[in-house]
Design goal:
Helix content is 76%, strand content 1%. It has helices spanning 2-20, 27-45, 51-62, 68-92, 95-107, 113-132, 138-155, 161-179, 185-204, 210-226, 229-246, 250-255, 268-288, 291-314, 339-358, 364-389, 396-413; strands at residues 321-322, 336-337.
Length: 417
């Protein structure tokens, strides 16, 4: 009961700080008041949530590291959303019952109610706060909430989760505030619906876990908002190719011990490793409108598609050869390549290029560059796997990230002027 009281008082201090911030100047005065109040709560109730994160954010605001909008919007999203989520968890089930129910929902592909409460309450409160602060920007609200959900799914078992989430949301809101990128509200709503629908149905199909749902939605929003819905379509084609080939002869791959981990269910690491370069390309394109950004996007996606298809199909073919020494290795060895794998990699990259051509994103020249980038990128993936991943110096996600970046840069170089 003491801890619950401390939690409620700490939340009220944070919400009061939002209301007082526009009127208490300079910022370090408000920061000092918030610090003092939070220290009293810590001393009396011994409850670091949410007082410690509120104190950290107040210090950043007092030192002028973050502006008023970032301070207020971050607190609005995190305090209101987390309070609603904890209310849903605390009133619906006992602690043991929550764990049992959460496992049941995850196995059934259902989103836990705490996340739905977080979305609904934080969306309403943050929109009100951003309007009251004179900057009603729904893009900042959407990006902040999406990142909060993603971090919540990733860090739910860590004691410092709330602090990391607060800092992550603050950094996100600060970044997009500095970009000063504007988008029509209806287009933003459509982007959010499309991106979250994709993540949700992938989650329901057990192609993604909860962190994959929110990371996929985040990538989708960035593609649609900063570039075009057609870019999102291209990424969906990659996802379809990857999911389909992951299930190709899955029982056989399981028997020989080379199947995709978690039965092919993707998490945030896999999503970011394969799509973060594509998302960065979309943001760069939205800011610069440079054609090299399109090539960067297509080259990275073609690499991700080529590598996934080559790995999932090539491993079921003939004995692979190590790309560095050409000696025979067992299927599934990092850096192992086969002729079948090289051929299907080029086909996958060609599919990405042709979809981009049909969608009006690329011309025939860019299609050829996309295929070449996919071939180069997937072999760089094999090279990095043989030289570094086999030695434990880098993980599979790191290898994929290096490869998609290399494939994207390879394509972009042809269009830099």
């Amino acid at each position: 009961m003491m801890r619950q009281t401390g939690t409620l008082i700490g939340t009220l201090i944070g919400l009061a700080a939002i209301a007082a911030a526009p009127f208490v100047t300079p910022g370090w005065v408000l920061a000092g008041i918030v610090l003092l109040a939070c220290l009293v709560v810590l001393a009396v109730y011994r409850e670091p949530y949410p007082t410690a994160p509120v104190m950290v954010l107040a210090v950043l605001f007092g030192l002028q590291v973050i502006p008023l909008l970032v301070f207020g919007l971050t607190l609005a999203i995190m305090l209101s959303g987390e309070l609603a989520a904890r209310y849903a968890d605390g009133t619906l089930y006992s602690r043991r019952g929550r764990r049992i129910e959460e496992k049941r929902r995850l196995s059934a592909g259902e989103v836990p109610p705490a996340y739905l409460w977080f979305i609904g309450v934080s969306l309403i409160v943050s929109l009100v706060v951003s309007s009251a602060l004179g900057h009603p920007d729904p893009l900042l609200v959407l990006m902040g909430i999406t990142v909060a959900l993603l971090l919540k799914a990733i860090l739910e078992d860590r004691e410092d989760a709330f602090l990391v989430e607060v800092l992550g949301v603050a950094m996100t809101v600060h970044l997009f505030n500095d970009l000063e990128f504007t988008i029509d509200t209806m287009n933003l709503i459509a982007a959010a619906i499309l991106a979250f629908s994709f993540g949700y149905f992938a989650y329901r199909a057990r192609a993604m876990d909860l962190s994959g749902l929110f990371s996929g939605a985040l990538i989708g929003i960035l593609l649609i908002v900063f570039a075009d819905v057609r870019w999102f379509l291209v990424l969906l084609i990659f996802f379809a190719l990857g999911s389909g080939t992951t299930r190709y002869r899955f029982d056989y791959k399981r028997r020989i011990g080379v199947e995709e981990g978690k039965s092919g269910v993707r998490g945030y690491r896999n999503v970011f490793a394969n799509a973060i370069v594509a998302a960065a390309a979309a943001v760069l394109y939205g800011v610069t409108q440079h054609p090299a950004c399109i090539a960067l996007f297509l080259g990275s996606v073609a690499t991700a598609a080529a590598d996934t298809v080559a790995s999932e199909i090539g491993v079921t073919g003939t004995t692979p050869y190590l790309i560095t020494t050409f000696e025979r290795v067992r299927p599934g060895t990092n850096g192992g390549v086969t002729l079948v794998g090289e051929v299907v990699a080029c086909i996958a990259a060609l599919v990405i290029g042709l979809v981009a051509l049909a969608a009006g994103i690329a011309d025939p020249t860019m299609v050829l560059v996309t295929v070449a980038a996919g071939f180069v990128g997937t072999n760089i993936d094999s090279l990095v796997g043989a030289l570094f991943e086999n030695r434990g110096l880098i993980g599979n996600s790191g290898t994929n990230l290096v490869a998609t970046l290399a494939g994207g840069i390879f394509a972009a170089l042809f269009f830099l002027r």
